[in-house]
Design goal:
The structure holds two protein chains of two kinds. Chain A is of the alpha+beta class. Chain A has one domain: Alpha-Beta Plaits, CATH 3.30.70.20. Chain A has four helices and six strands. In chain A, the strands form three sheets. A two-stranded antiparallel sheet of chain A has the order 1-6. In chain A, about 40% of the residues are buried. By secondary structure, chain B is of the alpha/beta class. In chain B, the strands form two sheets. In chain B, strands 3, 4, 5, 6, 11, 12, 13, 14 and 15 form a nine-stranded mixed β-sheet that branches. In chain B, strands 1, 2, 7, 8, 9, 10, 16 and 17 form an eight-stranded mixed β-sheet that branches. In chain B, helix 1 packs parallel to helix 9, helix 13 runs antiparallel to helix 16 and helix 14 packs antiparallel against helix 15. Classes of the chains: A alpha+beta, B alpha/beta. The interface between A and B is large, with 39 and 56 residues.
């Protein structure tokens, strides 16, 4: 197997804001009601990880595609753009 | 912000900047809000751009240091099985001379920045690092300006152009465009792989400054409805792979793992060998089709480009539709300013302009193409393997009579595909293009 997602994100430049632009609306829904937990699979930056029986958000590496927002079976993700000037910053695009 | 602008544009991509250029050329004061640190900082496409449409906005673009990567002289199409693949390609001398820069590759971080500079030089104001978080509306629901995330960030305008791209929380929040369902977008990831210029020239058999595009279908998208591409840049290759988001959700395949598998395919691996990954990005492509294009205008606003889901999947045309729809929106706004009427009925001309152009013509013509792919999963599963089997058998010289080989190939094909299913595939395919 080739490069990991961590290797890939390491190539990118991010201007990380101190607060997350992504928020799970109700954490209990993810654990109690969401069998599929699609965020763990569809996110191209592996932002969502299952840790100690909760979903953690590693918003620092978010590529801002929006897939989690519309792909979450419970629409349980509050998704805003990072504050102006923050977030991923393409070099080549 | 105290000043009043005639036009507020959301997003400094090809649609927003084209509009800003046309407005500035006509002496109308427009302000463009871009959420990235600079125009292009958030933008990404496969990387192909079209000179005919750019020349409508900047006629002498090739003499103005436009950051062109390579002029495309050859297009290839691959149909891949797991271990091999078919390739067809077309190259033409015309693309090196009189049709030079009709199609070329760009890196959007550089191109969009250059394009926005052209708009600034014409007199448009481009404000970066600013997110438009809401639209201002009067008591009748008419759009009267934008709310930004800057302090004192409200700005009034006579008309607002939404050119904020396909991923638009603003559209969803304001209801101007429905949030897409997962089956209405494809999620694509892209890796830029650095290679020396002369190595790219050699591997693609091209002379300096010229380039090749490769569009790829088959089992490469792990059975999902999707596509991959390899495009040549001056000193790098762009590798993209994507599939319908609903398919990703069903299969639970991780996009970056699919990209890594793609890089090991025997057709792709020799082209990228020794290259150094330089950047990794993700983006959506509109797959909703002609029927799901939102209402592109209303009282005090217009929508252009990706934000309006204007994308032709089959011919990977999106940036040109963005530029042309942006210019149409600007022309409509110019008429509205003359009439001093920014109502829905005054802006209706925008739709007529789109209807009378290649944009609606093409989107209408290919409206069956996305459903065709979605209804024929065999294109991405059993068919490429059966076709690979056929070629491998015929090309292996082992003393077996050809007639016997043909029988074997036919039997293998029929294992997973009934005759009626094959005829249906051909008929639907023919109708979709």
């Amino acid at each position: 197997m080739g490069a990991s997602i961590e290797d890939k994100l390491f190539l990118d430049r991010f201007n990380v804001h101190e607060t997350s632009h992504l928020k799970i609306i109700d954490g209990a829904v993810c654990i109690d009601d969401c069998e599929q937990q699609l965020c763990l699979y569809i996110c191209p930056a592996n932002v969502y990880r299952l840790e100690h029986n909760r979903i953690s958000i590693n918003y620092e590496g978010c590529l801002e595609c929006g897939s989690c927002r519309i792909g979450c079976p419970h629409l349980n993700i509050e998704w805003k753009f990072p504050t102006g000037g923050y977030g991923v910053r393409h070099k080549f695009g | 912000m105290q000043e009043k602008y005639d036009v507020a544009i959301v997003g400094a991509g090809p649609a927003g900047i084209s509009a800003a250029c046309v407005l500035a050329d006509n002496g109308i004061n427009a302000v463009v809000f871009e959420r990235g640190e600079f125009p292009g900082a958030k933008n990404i496409s496969g990387g192909v751009l079209y000179g005919h449409d750019l020349a409508r906005i900047i006629p002498d673009f090739s003499q103005k240091n436009c950051p062109i990567e390579r002029n495309i002289v050859e297009s290839r199409i691959w149909y891949l099985s797991r271990d091999g693949g078919y390739s067809v390609s077309y190259r033409d001398k015309a693309f090196e001379s009189q049709r030079r820069y009709n199609v070329f590759t760009v890196g959007r971080a550089k191109f969009d920045r250059w394009f926005a500079d052209q708009a600034s030089q014409k007199g448009a104001l481009v404000v970066c690092g600013t997110v438009v978080t809401d639209l201002l509306r009067d008591e009748n629901g008419r759009v009267t300006g934008v709310r930004t995330d800057r302090p004192d960030g409200d700005l009034n305008a006579k008309v607002v152009l939404l050119a904020d791209g396909i991923n638009s929380p603003l559209a969803a929040k304001t209801g101007f465009r429905q949030e897409p369902s997962p089956s209405h977008v494809a999620l694509a990831v892209k890796e830029v792989i650095d290679l020396p210029e002369e190595v790219i020239d050699q591997r693609f058999n091209i002379s300096s400054g010229n380039g090749v595009t490769i569009e790829i279908l088959g089992s490469i998208t792990s059975g999902m409805n999707g596509v991959a591409v390899i495009y040549t840049n001056r000193k790098s290759l762009s590798l993209c792979i994507g599939a319908n988001l609903a398919d990703f959700a069903t299969k639970k395949i991780k996009p970056y793992e699919m990209l890594e598998i793609f890089k090991t395919h025997p057709m792709a691996a020799p082209l990228i060998k020794g290259g150094k990954p330089a950047e990794y990005m993700a983006h959506w492509l509109a797959e909703a089709g002609f029927e799901n294009i939102p209402k592109l205008y209303g009282n005090g606003y217009l929508i252009a480009g990706d934000s309006g889901m204007l994308f032709n999947t089959l011919h990977r045309e999106g940036s040109n539709m963005a530029m042309v729809s942006g210019a149409f929106a600007a022309q409509t706004i110019i008429d509205a300013i003359r009439k001093n009427d920014f109502s829905r009925s005054s802006l209706k001309n925008y739709e007529s302009r789109l209807q009378n152009s290649f944009i609606f013509d093409d989107l209408k013509k290919y409206r069956r193409f996305n459903p065709f792919l979605a209804h024929h999963p065999e294109i991405f599963t059993s068919l490429p393997e059966a076709m690979g089997f056929a070629a491998r058998e015929m090309l292996t010289v082992d003393g077996t009579p050809k007639k016997k080989k043909q029988k074997k190939i036919w039997k293998n094909l029929r294992k997973n595909h009934s005759l009626s299913a094959l005829l249906r595939l051909m008929w639907d395919g023919y109708r979709s293009v």
